[in-house]
Structures
1.
Amino acid sequence: MLGNLEGRYVRLEVISGKNLYVPSERIPAGIYISITVESRRRWKSATRSLSSEESVAWGDTVTLSSHASPALSLEIRASYEVDRMLGSGEVIGIIQMSWDEVLDHGDEAFELSFPPVHGICPSLTLKAAVVHPCGDQDGGLFDSIVDCEIARDTDAGHARFAEYRTSKTVSHLNDAVQHFQSVLDQCPVGHPDHASALTNLAYARLGGYIQNDLEDIDTTTSLFRKALALRPQDHPDHAFSLYNLIRALNWRYSKEPTAVYIHESAQLCCKLLPLCPEGTYLRSIGVDILLELCPLGHQRRPRALDKLSWVLFERFTQRGSIDDIDESIRLRREAVSLCPEGHADRDDYLNNLACSLQSRFNHQGQYRDLNEVISTHEEVLRLHPVGHETRDISLDHLGFALLTCFNHRGVIDDINRAISLHREELTLHLSGHPRRDTTLANLALALDTRYEKLHVDEDLNEAIDLYRESLRLKRH
């Protein structure tokens, strides 16, 4: 076939791609296709945003000279800059094809699979056809391959960091950080790539070094802050800089739950939401803290609702703003509604809803919240029948809710039920169980509470015995 192609051109249409997982698991600003046709020249598609389904639609076309090279080298790459690109980005997949393979599908679109990333094979949908030359077929479509130290170090840093994320080999991480530090040294303050260099270094440090070192977390966070300062609201990469800083702040808060970190994270989330186009990968991957990133019908929406509700719940515990706990409850109600009976996560979302309702009751004292706490825990207990691995936790939660209700209303049936539930819980926490001491104390508290109401000596005597056993276990 190649003989028939001599002096001819091939029009190649890059239609779309799917399963475009990034090896480093970093959120890309966009995905593009690179086709190398000569040793110093390549064609680049437009850089398109990755959708929430890890797919991209291009519809870009290039006309290639069949005699420029005996084969094509196609690469799928992730770009981490919307604006000025630093280096060539991270490689998602590389494959070489002969012209015969390209043209073996006639006029029909075909799917081209690449080697797997995290067990999933990225693929492109392409279409190829032979065309006759007409003027300057390649004019304006190709870039010269830039070979400079900054680009080489950046690409090497991305490659080594991707290797580290797969292998967890510390030497790969060290190499990545060394490359990114070298780029930062070559891109000082005032350099147009300074913000990108700061971000790459900070991301590598965030993904590997910080662990529990608070000083290192703060250093990494400061790099993201500097990058964000260089990318104001009208900058194309402003949203990604916001997200990176939010991620660093959340990590900081997970290691030291100080109010200032979660407050700033929540404020930045409010700024980020309007900047994330519907259906983009940034919008969906932000489910850890952002609700609107998963629209109605998205499979991750319940999780997104729950995660954002936790942010609001934490802020309520710090500030006491009723608006935060009201919103947390609203989000958790929706999460429960999206997980009907039989859904594997319904019990978790019910428990979280009860937690928010309990907090609002403690704050406002409205009995309708307490009633719902009890009914919610009762449903969870029904979902955890005898033999369920977390039935003991459900017994404990419902027992405490009923004890609280008795303390406010004095209905004997509530304290009797609470005692019965804690007794069953104790049967699941036999000698040697790590939480037996706590369960003994909980049952003792319930018995002591009933004694204060009914003055039955047997309750007081049993409560004393249980407290003594609990104390003995705690000492050991």
Note: The chain has a mean pLDDT of 86.
2.
Amino acid sequence: MVIRMMIISLIVAMFSILPAWLVPVSAFATTASGSTAIRSEPTYSGEWIDLLQSLESSPPPRRIQPPRSGANTITCGGKILTFAGYAEEIVDTASAVERYVVNDLWEFVPYQEENCEWGWKQRIADGSDVESPGPRLAFAMAGLPSSSNAFVLGGWDPQVPGTGGVILDDVSMLNSDSLTWSKPTDADGKAEGEPSIIPDGPTSRHVAVALSDDTICLHNHRCVDHVLLLRTSSDEQNKVRWHRQKTSGEAPSSRGLHCAASISSSSHGTNMCIFGGAAQNGVMSNEAFVLDTTTWKWTKIDCSGQTAPAPRAGACLCALDDNSVLLFGGAMPTEGGLLGLNDVWVLHVDDLKTGKGRWECLIEHQSVDSESSSAFPPGRNAATLTAIDARKVLPGDTFAESDKCYLLQGGWAPFRKTYNDVFVLRVASK
């Protein structure tokens, strides 16, 4: 109970209920003048597949136990891995709930006909590995695309109940081949063997995106005129370099609980897209920004006059194609408290130079009480959505080569229920 109140005190500052944001839960938005916004022509379709219910000839996948929110899921070295988070366990016959942070590591094992043991498998148990990063939530994690290395950056450790816990500045590296953890050292400016730390200080509720095979970009509430770049080198094993990269343009205002994904939007490489989040006063956003990593200039995406998702925090954002990202879920404030969402959107960045973009709603928010609720995951925030190759991971031959599929893991209906269902989102071009 004490930990729950600590969590509330930390997050409520970001999730304050403000009347200005009591918007209806709908795929429709309004223009500044109040008239109904215009929908763009659809280019994609979306469909949820419940792997626990829809596989008639195959056993269902194993689930993560106990359920958790606030974890991070990545693909690294050909593996789908989930680390840490905020676990929820029913502790007695009266359905009393205990919630606590963990530092276990899970892998989603692909389906094989000769092996019925597929789905989530725990690789490192909670508290069993002294080299693992400590228990945490509200952290960032990113895997390098053509490498077996992934990095865990910062977060929040509640520690002893009643203390308020500690915001973290540590850096840990996971080798996905051996599933072992290590503490990288700074290649510059540190004594030999001293672990690297995040240079701007302890941070949580931040995001991190891999920009290349050797560079990860971190963005947090302090990054109003810069971003932090973590760089690795194949010549210096287990060493990293931090760089405080100045930025220009119309940058996101100070925020946390936002989401981020890579997006090309140019011929010069991988850029970073940021959506939503909340300011310290709790006001939530539905703004989107793209950082050009050649010029290091921010561009606010202009979707005026278009239907757009409601302001939210704790959503999921994934790369979709060269000029688009996929948005799922998050939480928004209502008169009855925080509402977990399950709508799915695509943001098209049509012209990065002018900042022109448009939103496309693939799946509107569905109440869990609706007749079609079984076809949709319940609304949630603090979940993960991860791109997968469905034809290599899932049973059956129902997925086309052109389908883009995403594995949903965890999340919660805030302070009510935590999920460990297993849904896959299939996105197809029209």
Note: The first strand starts at residue 44 and ends at 50.
3.
Amino acid sequence: MNQVLKFNGHNYFRQRLIMATLSGKTVKIDKIRSDETDPGLQDFETNFLRLLEKVTNGSVIEISYTGTTIVYKPGIITGGKVFHDCDTSRSIGYYLEPMVAIAPFAKTPFDLTLTGITNDNTDITVDTIRTVTLLQLKRFGIDGDIELKITKRGAPPLGGGEITFKCPTVRTLRPMQYTEEGRIKRIRGIAYSTRVSPQMANRMVESARSVLNRYIPDVYIYTDVFKGEQSGKSPGFALSLVGESTTGALISAEQVANPGETPEDIGRKTAKLLLEEISKGGCVDSVSQWLVLLMMVLGPEDVSKVRIGQLTALTIQLLRDIKDFFGVTFKIQTEQDVNQTLILTSVGIGYINYSKKTR
């Protein structure tokens, strides 16, 4: 009988289920919104459980009558061709982000199609996953054809977007030493608009450049205007920016327009968010911290090291959960530089993907 790990509350729901799947440990989560007027699992969480069930084989999910307790016994990650319709109360990023972490360890390469909202301000957008998160995997030796194709855009509240995610499988990862952050040499971005005037995207680009060109000349923001069937069911526009350093560090910021906001507001706000993220320092931005640290733990029994600017609340809890699931602790040193960055060091557990067929 496996030892059952017990947790309380609905926070960090996805990361605990993903670590349970990778470690093979049964997990029990109690008191899910037990004190709220609408107790238990929300629609988007049960929708995520359905997706997890589709990409694994042999998983057992038991949910209590009130929905406030869940027991998850993980199976093996099968991958393959999967189609899933995401709940529109959260964006596709909520569902795709955890899949990126387990996709390399599947039995067959992932070919995942998700439909729903592509960009919102609650979760990571599909643009940032494509331009930043997937590139972090390559540092751990996951090469091959990692692909994220945005076939349709879907703005909140109705969505109607569609993406296809393909990822090869690996048997083992390689260790990572990444402590040189370098200096930002160029900024790239994507300004998208659907069911609104194409001029909206150009206005976002102009206002973002007005802020960023004071610091760096090499700023290029692509405009992505969707029309007809590819434009989803709701009007909307958003901006995603990525700063690349001389050592290849990727720092991102993004913003989606809320009702009443002008393109100029979004352009300036996103540019300032990017500058704020860059000022924190580190080789990894806030949204990618959890993935890099998890991959370091799953790496070979060798030392991995990374420089991080400021730990987010999600990352702090992740470090605690990693100790519970994998028995690994990180050594954290504060550097005496301008940004007081942190160097995190750990030794991997030597995770091997036994499901992958050997040729």
Note: Residues 96 and 167 are 12 Å apart (CA to CA).
